[in-house]
Structure formats: structure tokens, C-alpha cells
Design goal:
Blueprint: E1 3-6, H1 12-24, E2 29-33, E3 39-42, E4 47-51, E5 57-71, E6 82-98, E7 102-109, E8 122-132, E9 135-141, H2 148-151, E10 179-186, E11 191-203, E12 209-224, E13 227-239, E14 249-250, E15 263-264, E16 274-276, E17 286-300, E18 303-316, E19 324-336, E20 344-345, E21 348-349, E22 361-375, E23 390-402, E24 407-419, E25 424-425, E26 428-429, E27 434-445
Length: 446
């Protein structure tokens, strides 16, 4: 339903009061005419208010993801079954435009899986200037640009958790409570390039924060929903010289419930295997940390295929240490049984919008993850690690039901197999090198 009201000779302040009354009356959409530009109100999918000349506007929305999972084997220290029930994300999202060229985003995570008590639980808090189109400049707290699956919103990523290979480079596409500046330039309708410089929430011996540089380029000659051809490359580098930092190469292997916030996890029995490196690596042990990534995707109608390759090198800065190298990849195929295509915007996939309002859209997917870590600093076997390359293979098989444009229900079976990596209790090897898990999620987006 659409309503239009005209208030001639009335101040904007009174129009705002009338607007509040219209919202409280649960109007689906409406237009308020003021002595300035008209105001358009939309309440489908959150609350959006904007002037018709597009100079000013704001939107209030959010996402809620409630998860439950059960898992055993390598996912727990003693190998027995554990479970977890938690909010994976509970975001309150506010975004807007001011004076046409300025934009802002504030995403606050009420589940506390983003940020920290000291730095604020922000997933993003940034300001952008778009007056140099096609160049956009962003400053604030945001995730650096690295990888296709990371660029795709957690609302619309296919599997419940992003691929395990990303765990090798968790610093490369995470803000880690730091701040940054990014420049992004669109290349017509077919691609873009972005670069960013970040100051991370970790200091060297002099109190100078760790600096990180990111770059990503995307070319998509086919860039419409159901007709996608996408290729891209990413690079990230951070300076960790003269700094004590977490140098572990570790992974949850697709099961967030082994260690998470926002509710109950597996507690002290949750196992997050370490494939290389060590926590609190002393100052002067390593010089720089570098990551590279390649990505590709193809979609035709309801079928989509995508994959990425990741490589990381942590360079030694002391004769007492060796370089640590890791690489990984994933390959994913998804098919929508009801015929809908995955949405696509240059550089990332977007939502599936169900065509049949009665049955929604049903999507099946399978993803294979692989990762490997070469750490020659490991010269003797421990309770959790044998000498040699630590490896893992993870299978993800699942279904997504897009009941409406706002409601998505998902279920996934995850099976992991490791090599030279084990679980242990009190430094005594349990001996599991594989594990199974099951995850269900209810998501509401507004």
C-alpha cells in the first residue's frame, strides 16, 4: 500500500513528527511532502527514509543468526560429542547518505563476536566520500578487501561458515579492532580495484601499531544474476617486526561452536587445532607476514560454481626461527532447486530472492576445503602435532531454504580429516584425526 500526504507551509520539524506517527501506524510505505525535498519512507526490510533528490537518507536494519551445532572427534579435546547454541551474529545496522557524496555505516554486533569490550563490538563503523566517482574513499573501522567469499555478506554466503583456508589468513581480511583508509575505483560495469592501509590493534616494542596493506582487483565480464563470470586476485602484507603477536596457523575447520561468543560453546573441551606457529611469538622472531589469493566464479541460471586459492608466508627475522608457509583452497558448487539465480554485484554474490512466496527458494550446496602448513620450527612430535606438514580436508554438504526475502533457514553436515594434527587432553594425545559436525541456523534480516 502506498500513501501520499501533503503538508503545505509547515516546517520540516512538524513533518518529522507526522513521519513518526506514520511509522507507528505501521504504514508499509509513504511519501511526506515538506517545504524542501519530498521524503520517501520505506518499511519493507527495515526502515529507510530518504529525500527524493537523494541528498539525504538513512536506513536502519539488522541481521540475526541463531545457530545450534553438535560435533565430535577432532573438534573436541577428548573426542567425545559436544554441542553449542549461540548467536553467530546479532547486528544492528545503520547506514545513510548526507549531502549526496558522503555516506556512513555503523554495524554493531550485539552477540560480541566482532570487536571487543575495550574497542567496542563494531563489525564496521566507517565514513565514505563518493564525490570523486568512480573513485570512493572510506575511512574508519572495516574489514580490508581480500577474497570473494569474504566480500559476500554473511547474510548471503552459501555455507554457514566461510571456507577453512581463510583461517590461515584471519588477519588479512579482518579489521582486528584497528582503523584504516581504503580507495576503491569502479571499472565500468565489469570490475574494480581497491587498496587500503590499516593500523591494527597490536603494537611493536615502541608502541607503533602494526601496519597492513591490502589490494584486490576483480574483472567480471558477465555480471548479472544467473549469468556470471568472475575472476580476481588479492594481496595483503603486514609488518610484524619488533612485535609480539599471535603467530598461530589454526582453524575451526568449519565448526564455529568449538570456540565462539554470543552464547554457549564447547567450553574447555572445544578444540581449535593449531597447524603451525605459536601464540605470543616474541618480538624480533618474524619480519613480515604476506598473503596472496586467487578467486574465480561462474554462474548460469540456478547453478553456481566458485573457488579460491590462498597462500601465506610468515618470514623469519632471526636465525632461531624458520619461515612458516601455509596454503589452501576451496571449491564449491550450489544449485537452486526452485530455479532462482544467486544475486550478483561486481565483486561479490548477493541474495537469492524466492519467486514462489508459498514454498520459497531451496538451494543445495557442497564445498570442499583444503589447507596445509609447513612449519620447520617443529622438530619433535608433541601431543597435538607430528613433524611434517600439517594438513586438513573438510567436506561441507548442506541446504538453504530462503523462506522469504527476510527469513533463511540452513543446515549443514561437516566432516574433517587431518594429517599430523591431533586432539589432546592435559598434554596427553587423544588420537583423533577426524571429526563430524552438524549445524543448523535460523536467520532473520531486516
Amino acid at each position: 500500500m502506498r500513501r501520499k500526504h501533503s503538508f503545505r507551509g509547515v516546517k520540516v520539524g512538524f513533518a518529522g513528527s507526522a513521519l513518526a506517527l506514520a511509522i507507528s501506524a505501521q504504514a508499509f510505505a509513504g511519501t511526506v511532502t515538506t517545504d524542501g525535498a519530498d521524503i520517501v519512507v520505506k518499511t519493507k526490510g527495515g526502515l529507510e527514509v530518504a529525500t527524493t533528490d537523494k541528498q539525504f537518507g538513512f536506513k536502519i536494519g539488522g541481521r540475526l543468526q541463531a545457530d545450534y551445532s553438535r560435533f565430535d572427534g577432532i573438534y573436541t579435546r577428548n573426542g567425545d560429542t559436544a554441542d553449542a547454541a549461540y548467536f553467530r551474529r546479532a547486528f544492528l545496522e545503520i547506514s545513510g547518505v548526507a549531502f549526496t557524496d558522503w555516506a556512513y555505516i555503523i554495524n554493531y554486533d550485539l552477540s560480541h563476536n566482532s570487536g571487543s569490550s575495550d574497542d567496542g563490538y563494531f563489525d564496521e563503523a566507517s565514513i565514505s566520500y563518493n564525490g570523486f566517482a568512480p573513485l570512493s574513499i572510506k575511512v574508519g573501522r572495516f574489514d580490508p578487501d581480500f577474497g570473494l567469499e569474504k566480500a559476500t555478506s554473511s547474510k548471503w554466503v552459501t555455507a554457514l561458515e566461510r571456507n577453512a583456508a581463510y583461517d590461515l589468513i584471519d588477519w588479512a581480511n579482518s579489521h582486528q579492532n584497528g582503523m584504516g583508509i581504503q580507495a576503491l575505483a569502479l571499472l565500468g560495469d565489469s570490475g574494480y580495484v581497491s587498496t587500503s592501509l590499516s593500523s591494527k590493534d597490536n603494537n611493536d616494542d615502541d608502541g607503533d601499531s602494526i601496519k597492513q596493506f591490502n589490494a584486490r582487483g576483480v574483472f567480471a565480464p558477465m555480471h548479472e544474476a544467473g549469468n556470471v563470470l568472475h575472476v580476481g586476485a588479492s594481496f595483503a602484507r603486514r609488518d610484524v617486526s619488533d612485535a609480539s603477536f599471535d603467530a598461530r596457523f589454526r582453524s575451526r575447520l568449519g565448526i564455529r561452536g568449538v570456540e565462539t561468543l554470543g552464547g554457549n560453546d564447547a567450553g574447555s573441551n572445544g578444540n581449535r587445532p593449531v597447524f603451525g606457529g605459536a601464540n605470543n611469538s616474541p618480538s624480533g622472531s618474524y619480519d613480515d607476514d604476506t598473503a596472496w589469493g586467487l578467486e574465480g566464479a561462474w554462474a548460469m541460471g540456478p547453478l553456481s560454481v566458485q573457488g579460491e586459492y590462498i597462500k601465506r608466508k610468515l618470514k623469519s627475522d632471526s636465525d632461531a626461527y624458520h619461515d612458516i608457509k601455509g596454503d589452501g583452497y576451496y571449491a564449491q558448487v550450489a544449485y537452486t532447486l526452485t530455479g532462482e539465480a544467486r544475486g550478483y554485484k561486481v565483486g561479490r554474490f548477493d541474495a537469492i530472492k524466492p519467486e514462489n512466496k508459498q514454498i520459497g527458494a531451496w538451494e543445495l550446496f557442497y564445498r570442499f576445503d583444503s589447507l596445509s602448513v609447513d612449519d620447520k620450527n617443529i622438530v619433535a612430535a608433541s601431543a597435538t602435532r607430528d613433524v611434517g606438514d600439517g594438513e586438513a580436508k573438510v567436506h561441507n554438504l548442506g541446504v538453504n531454504w530462503y523462506a522469504t526475502e527476510a527469513v533463511k533457514l540452513s543446515a549443514s553436515y561437516v566432516k574433517a580429516k587431518t594429517d599430523k594434527v591431533f586432539n589432546a587432553v592435559n598434554s596427553v594425545r587423544t588420537g583423533d584425526d577426524d571429526g563430524d559436525g552438524f549445524i543448523v541456523r535460523a536467520q532473520y534480516v531486516f
